[in-house]
Amino acid sequence: MQLIRPDTNFDFTGKRKYAVAISAVMVIASLLLFFVKGPTWGIDFTGGTEIRLQFTEPTDIGELRSALGELNLGTDAVQQIGTVDENEFVIRIQDTTYGSDEVQQQVVQALESAFGAQWIKERSFDAQVGARMTIRYDGPTVPVASIERALASMDGVRIREGLDENTVTIDLPGLSAKIEAAIGAELQGRTFEVRNVESVGPKVGGELRQQGMLAILATLAMILVYVAFRFKLAFAPGAVLATFHDVSLTVGAFVLLDMVGWTHEFNLSMIGALLTIVGYSLNDTIVVYDRIRENMERYRRRDLEALINTSINETLGRTIATSFTTGLAMTAFLVLGGPVIETFALAIIMGIVFGSYSTIYIAAPVILIMEDLRPRFDRLFAPSSANAVAVATPTGSGETPSAESTPELSASEQRRRERQARRSGQQGEGE
């Protein structure tokens, strides 16, 4: 079955100027939204704690927010996921030091009460690897068991010997334990299960954000090198611009959705989706580039603009079929996959639409621009050719330059001049 008739000839390249102008405006707007407004960063990039709870009995989100009121959490920190019947909620706290000051003070008071007011010489708190408190003390070495007895009244505290002498490391109760205790005290008789707990330090989150951006930029650089070797240099900028176009518009669309109230966090799943979009867009571009290269070898004397337009039309059926089937699968994930994969599926659907558009209106037409610029690059990087001709043929000598002395002439022009020279020689001999 053919989706597109073989004689189809849509004038894609004829509309390239309008398409490029529209794409340029959308890319600039997307970049402004990203750097000025910014996306909703997830805890993967900002640091914090995310706790997912599921109740066995019907529970209203208002009840859960009231139960957590004593922890001074904002109302946006509690969100319901899935359907109402699933009774599943997620609690996000981006402050990695949230609630730790009170616990630290309790630890210090208990230790000073057991070992003396001057026993603690130095203490520090590290939120990068969890709620971890390090204490250096004076006097003889104290066994860990003695410190455990001093902190026996605090649930969830774990004590370990430090790396240095007279140093002890104390793992404080996590934020999830405090939230569980608050819910259990407020919603008595309700049973719930902690489905998942994720904690990321702010330093780790910043490194993940930087590495994610570098991964996308490195991918674009490798695409430039790959396409230049696979085809030729004139093809490479189009592939990179098309891929950058797709990634930029996808990110801009997510920021725009945040502004209208449909919030999707920018997390590691989003980075994975953007890299997937890069691969999908590049694959679609390579298919069209292959057909353009084949037609350039088959129809050497044909106009390049018409040849590119024919190549796009010949691969249009394949582009539509691939985009439709991939989009259908991602739509199923978006509708049935739940909140875990919702962001990824929505990003891929956007990438499919933007990728199909950019292959036709960005990647292929850029070849025309590069071919138009090639003579200028040739003159820029090989300026000595014109000087060589001037030296070989002085002004007023009356001699006709030979084919060897005019390297800028095409092969057909050189053969034509050689035939003219032979005819002139034969006529001279006859006279």
Task: Give a structural overview.
The chain has 431 residues and is an alpha+beta fold. The chain has 3 domains: 13-41 and 203-375, Multidrug efflux transporter AcrB transmembrane fold; 47-95 and 176-199, Alpha-Beta Plaits (2-Layer Sandwich), CATH 3.30.70.100; 100-173, Gyrase A, domain 2 (2-Layer Sandwich), CATH 3.30.1360. It has 14 helices and 10 strands. The chain has helices spanning 16-37, 43-46, 61-67, 100-115, 144-150, 175-186, 202-230, 236-259, 268-298, 304-314, 316-336, 339-381, 384-392, 411-430; strands spanning 40-41, 48-55, 78-81, 88-93, 120-126, 132-137, 158-161, 167-171, 192-200, 265-266. A 4-stranded antiparallel β-sheet has the order 3-4-2-9. Strands 5-6-8-7 form a 4-stranded antiparallel β-sheet, covered by helices on one side. The N and C termini lie far apart (71 Å).
Keywords:
12% strand; 10 strands; Gyrase A, domain 2; elongated; Multidrug efflux transporter AcrB transmembrane fold; 14 helices; alpha+beta
Write the layout of secondary structure elements.
Layout: H1 16-37, E1 40-41, H2 43-46, E2 48-55, H3 61-67, E3 78-81, E4 88-93, H4 100-115, E5 120-126, E6 132-137, H5 144-150, E7 158-161, E8 167-171, H6 175-186, E9 192-200, H7 202-230, H8 236-259, E10 265-266, H9 268-298, H10 304-314, H11 316-336, H12 339-381, H13 384-392, H14 411-430
Parallel strand pairs: 1-10
Antiparallel strand pairs: 2-4, 2-9, 3-4, 5-6, 6-8, 7-8
Helix pairs in contact: 1-8, 7-8, 7-9, 8-9, 8-12, 9-10, 9-12, 10-12, 11-12
> End-to-end distance, in Å?
71 Å
CATH class of the largest domain: Mainly Alpha
Mean pLDDT, to the nearest integer, reads 78
CATH architecture of the largest domain: Up-down Bundle
Alpha-carbon Rg, integer: 34 Å
Name the shape in a single word. Answer: elongated
Series of H and E elements: HEHEHEEHEEHEEHEHHEHHHHHH
